[in-house]
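<discrete_fold_record>
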Amino acid sequence: MRNFTLFSFLFFSITTFSQIKGTITDDKGNPLPFVSVFEENTYAGTTSNEQGKYQLNVKEIGKNKITFQYLGFKTQKIAVAAGSKTVTLDIQLQEESFALNEVIIDPKNNPANAIIKNAIAHKKENSDKTERYTADFYSKGMFKVKDLPKKILGKKVELGDDMASNLDSTGTGILYLSETISKVSLEKPNKFKENIIASKVSGNNRGYSYNTAALSNYDFYDNTLDFDVKLISPIADNAFNYYKYKLESTFYDDNNQQIYKIKVIPKRDKEPVFEGYIYIVDDSFAIYAIDLDIKGYRMKNEFTEIMTLKQSFSYNTKNKIWSKNAQTLSFNAGIFGVKFSGNFNYVYSNYEFPASFEKKTFGNELVAFDLNANKKDDAFWNEIRPIPLTIEESSDYAKKDSLQTIRKSKKYTDSIDAKNNKFKVWDILMGYDYKNTFKKYSFDYKGLLNISSLSFNTVQGFNLDSGFSFKKWNEEEGKSTSISTTFNYGFSDERFRAIGEFSHRFNTINYATIWGSGGTKTAQFNSAEPISKFINSISSLFFKDNYMKLYNLEFAEINYGQDIANGINLTGKIGYEQRKPLLNTTDYSFFKKDDIYSSNNPLAPNDFTTPAFDQHHLFKALLTTKINFGNKYISRPDGRFNFKDDRYPTVYLAFEKTFAASEKKYEYERIGASVQYDLSLGNKGLLGTNFRGGKFFNAENISFIDYRHFNGNQTHIGTSERYLNVFNMMPYYSNSTNDSYFEMHTEYNDTGFIMNKIPLLNLLKSTMNIGFHALAIPDKKPYSEFTIGLDNLGFGKFKLFRIDYVHSYQGGIQQNGVVFGLKILNALD
């Protein structure tokens, strides 16, 4: 009923609007893009498109003046005579006559500094004027590509039909085009609610635009703005530590208020800073406009070359509030010679500034889509769209929308599938994929020579995987089902193993999912698998190090999980396990052939005959809960999408119990908990923490497999983005316990705050990491290690490396070493 009432009100409003439209040019006839157009002393506004065309909906023509405002040009106010419901009004703007004759420039007393100091001093006052509002919001986003090749690094570039349909033979065209109409409610500092009334994605009538106000709210009255890293506002409290300023000119707006045009100059090139211009109003020292550039390397995004953010504000003489009426965000990026560009336009209109909101206005739901938000027809959009489409955008909509019907037809999808599903003889060796797009299922065969799965360990020698998988999905209902089987053969132990897996997701509202698996496989004693197959293969074959300790697991298990409340996910598992010890079967390596591998017994690396445990079986039940406090989410008709609130930690709770074991001694109970939290320090960096603890009960004689094992690292290679779940120099099984335990991981990343200020080192554009890790268990001296290193290292745009110095201490034994982080290895396992 609420959505019907809102839509009825909206429909009544737009059908009673009058419209003023036309083209805006300079005095030479060149179109002016993104000119702010608004009705004087109201909050009805729009902007011109890239071709200078605009259309403004007003309640009644002749009741007010129309203002045309553009940086660098004189603001014009024009009274439009009452008449028909549609008026064409073409405007030619004249360049502004900037002057500094009223300002005495004193090298010892920079006038720009005084203006910025006043802007900082009045920041809270000006921000508070818009601390609470509702507004209508419109956005249009376009993402383009130029010179997209057929292959990159030998791999075929895969694009969906809707994206690829508008690329020409050179790989140039629009990849993504969408629009959004919504109603926004905001209360500073962090209360927000957006209701999406209409959403349109070119070539996808079931799509939902991501161009929301929630993801584009940039407020320069805040000290920092979030662009991957925290960028410093030119009027932040500490802005003079980062910027120099130059008063370039002054002019008067249409309300006879003096405006200062101030150039923003970074003091240090590598800092997280803007550069460009900020326009400040005299007397109130409010923001009049923003025209700032962001270089990609300053926000630690090497693939982005430059991003430009522009904002314009309009003044209402009735309430004396400067409010943002338009914003544009554009960028250029590139990789492998391919150029990308994007342009996102935002219009805010029909502001209201309530004294307060009702208590239930804000909650955990950030964005809600109306049920039929993506089903509005062209007539609706043509009537309500505040920024006219360009010829290119109109063509993209027309072409992709007409092709959509064809591309979704059974005849078309069957013909495309038939082409891609052709079977070739060598597919028996290399693998084969089959897909039925119309019926929404696929089949995959990995091939007999699945080289990407090839690995080496001392138990199996070289071993290889193959297998089959089947998937079926239904996007509308959020359902998906998958069934797979994986075959593994070890060439040294001459053993064939196989496992089967299945999963079914019931919906994307509470993500209720059931999954299970069973079969036989080799498993690491530490189920967290602290050493990957790839790293272990390199360590063994090149350095004759045997770190991966394995046992044979025959098992069957079933799991079920779902969100049981906002931010709370509950998962349960029950399974049967039969464990058998394994011994080394090979001594092969590429080098150091005279050396001997350590044994497969993690408790006795020099004992090659005694197994680590006796063969046994048991049943195991595990219940885990994940709690995201303050969890936020977006509601769409096709699902609910959760967003962690960074102000709060994530908590994990677990209870584990084994029963019906082959011997009573293998049965135990365990409780565990983990708290993970990232503390944002603004522009000064990020402090990540991970605290874990737990306790075993009735576990004096349990199998070593069931001990609590901790993620050590003896390879000196790091594979993760952050080291908040690993001890960088601790041997893998040196501190395993069947009693109580507590581990702590902390890591501070300066995000460039320190590194940007160090001469020469700042040329690396890297970040500094400082970490501390500690472990406490009964009957052993505590283990601790301190780390310091550099992240975001690499060549050109590829920052894939990290290096850390590590100092560890336990029971009087100290060790020092270096860990090389190769984050690209995440993709190889």
The first strand starts at residue 18 and ends at 25. The radius of gyration is 31 Å.
